[in-house]
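#lab-general

N.A. 3:47 PM
ok so I finally got the sequence cleaned up, no stray characters, all 735 residues accounted for. can someone with queue access submit it? mine expired

B.Y. 3:52 PM
send it over

N.A. 3:53 PM
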Amino acid sequence: MSAEQSVRDELEELRRILMSPEVLVARIVPVISEILREEAARSPEELAVAIAPVVGEALRGQAETAPEDIAAALYTIIRRTVDRAVTEAGVEPAGTADASGPQSPRLRGVLQGGSAWARESAVRPSRRKWFGLSSRVAQAAVLLLTVLLLVGGCGWWVWRVEHTFSVLAMPAPMATPAPILASTATARPTLAPTSTPTPTPTPTATRTPSPTATPSPSPTLKPLTLAVDRDVYDLSEALFSLLPAQHERLVVLPYTSQDPTDDELATRLATWAIRWAPEPPKGAILLREEPYAIAVHPLFPEEEVSKVELVALASGQDESHGMVVGDSGRAARELLGLERLPSNTILMPDWLRAKEHVATHEGTWALLPWEAVDFRVRVLSIEGFRPGPTGSDDYPLVRRLWLTQQAPAPQPLVDALLEGLRYELPPTAELVAVGDIMLDRRVGELIEENTVFYPFEGDGIRSLLSQADIAFANLECPISDRGTRQNKGYEFRADPEVVEALVDVGLDVLSLANNHTGDYADLALTDTIRLLTEAGIVFVGAGRNITEAHQAKIVQANGLRVAFLAYNQIGPDYFAATETSPGTAFMDPERMVAAVRAARQKADVVVVSCHWGIEYTPYPNASQQELAQTLVDAGATLIIGHHPHVVQALGYGQGTFTAYSLGNFVFDQGFSEETSQGLVLRFFLDASGVKMVEFLPVRITDCQPALMSPEHGARVLERVFSVTEEQGALPRASQ
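B.Y. 4:20 PM
back already:
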């Protein structure tokens, strides 16, 4: 073991003894309890409760104080504490305190011989009085004073060890050292005693030489201490391990901010300290801003909470949902201004397990750092602010990390901390997915009666799609004015002018893998491909041959690569692409698995669109579930279903979110409530997958979708989640 490590270990042990009331109490209480046993019916636990806060308060910040000063400062406090303990136990009350106080010769004598006197009295009981106290109570007081005096001596030794460690940690001084900061202390020079020559017996007086001072030693520069919150240190240990080598005289000391003593030492004694705080300390520099989100179980009935409601939940005033924390509740206390957590708080060892507990236990919630969020929990808005890391600067759930300063920090150190601790979002993209868009039949008539933009003029639709990084839909018709009608029962074809509306509303990617793309044969399909390509809209799930039809299309948004694949399961089979003819990509599990795996090598996120299922039922069938599991196993990030014309159940895999059917979006099926409703999903994506999903129900009136109010949309979501729960597709702990 190196000398430096040995000194560090000794320092840590002495600091633990000196600064921890619990350690002191554990050593002192059994002896005091034995002395008081005959006169005071107080258990060691009761004594510990009484003494611990006094010891902690008396020792706070005394590491560099002389032992006799500690004894003097503690005298009155200990006398009062022992008197109160004895009185509460029914023992004869203490007498009047000695007027001479702790500085009297009488007390000094007691302190000097306290240990021996206490040992002697312990084996020779007496009913004598000391300062008005019964003998055994006096023994307890003296013993406590003696131990604390010894601890005060430890405090001096801690200072000596710290000084020694500072010298060990300090680089060799330069020839002419110059302090970096104006407040840097230097060692005082000392004078050697002067000597006077012995006079000779001659009558001639001899001049006594003037005292000669010894040369002043070179000034010793104190180390510059950077105290770092232990959680932050663990987060960026590599950064802090490099800083001392890069910045002269810098010593990095992690501390536990949850410990009040450690926290006060860091803020009072360190040159600089890195700590979380809701408000900026005076002169502090902001190093990091970290967003948090309100995570609830998928069945939570609300979409938004107010700050007042959130505080009521977190403080226990509202006991309807238990709070889950992964950091002992520190972030919740800071962000919500809580002094303590309610008794029903559930403590988890880390944020990942806190998130999973919320996902799998209805009636719980958590305040999660954004990194811990994923689609298995629902994330609520607060005070009108949408959740997510890219929201307003006024978003209220942001934790802030500060650099506090006893003296101005050198700019190179500040720059290194800003760079190393900066909160950086990974590439994130917002994807909005909608259901079936059909622009023929009654929809086509309404376009002719109004404008080509009519289908997308419902409340909230244009802004929802145009503001997304990627907007995706299933186009349930070819776009052409040519081709041969196939006479298969229902045939759709939209006028080429609708492309202008698709571009205008902000649609970016369209699936052509459905049972209507071939309604007007190959010519109309190839026209559709050409028109979309010319308009800059990505198509997927169809092509001029089978290779193109099965090809993944990769779209980049904010640096995130999102791959799209699309497949059709609904006949007629002759709509399938071949090696030599246009068509759609029909479902072939083996080929789908290979395509998903290949896409995973090229993209961060893989989205698979599936045209499948049985019309007008909210329940996915066995074939859908089996195919979905196949895609999950292959590595799909997100599965989006179409065709049933109603909203179906959801699926919560460990790493894959499945929406079996989003229902209609632009359609003319107004014959039932279910076909007149649809579900829009807004996803936050990053390289880890689906971070968050928002559920936005729409109502279709005269073929025109519009966002529903939260009150009306709740009925749609209640039906969706009811079916999902019935299918056993909610998040499960075993996943």
